[in-house]
Specification:
Blueprint lengths: L1 E3 L9 E2 L1 H10 L4 E4 L5 H7 L5 E5 L3 H7 L8 E4 L1
Parallel strand pairs: 1-4, 3-4
Antiparallel strand pairs: 2-5, 3-5
């Protein structure tokens, strides 16, 4: 798993673990960025799938802020 400090420039993304898993299964999500403090049980739900997983070097609160959301985000999915 690669660690990144910058998010992709794509404007469309998926947040929410259930939505990300659903979009992985339909092929809409091909890359998932997870916060540095993302719980292991959430990582286990997406590991083993045919996607790229990258770790964001900051925590859930900072990931939410970078995405313009006023709440913490554990993971975000991209096409």
């Amino acid at each position: 798993m690669e660690t990144i400090s910058k998010l992709p420039d794509k404007k469309e993304f998926t947040i929410g673990t259930r939505e990300i898993i659903k979009d992985i299964e339909t092929g809409k999500v091909k890359k998932v960025v997870v916060a540095s403090n993302c719980p292991d049980f959430l990582l286990a739900k997406i590991s083993g799938k045919n996607i790229v997983i990258e770790r964001f070097e900051e925590d859930e609160k900072q990931l939410g802020t970078r995405l313009g959301k006023p709440f913490p985000i554990a993971m975000v999915g991209y096409e």
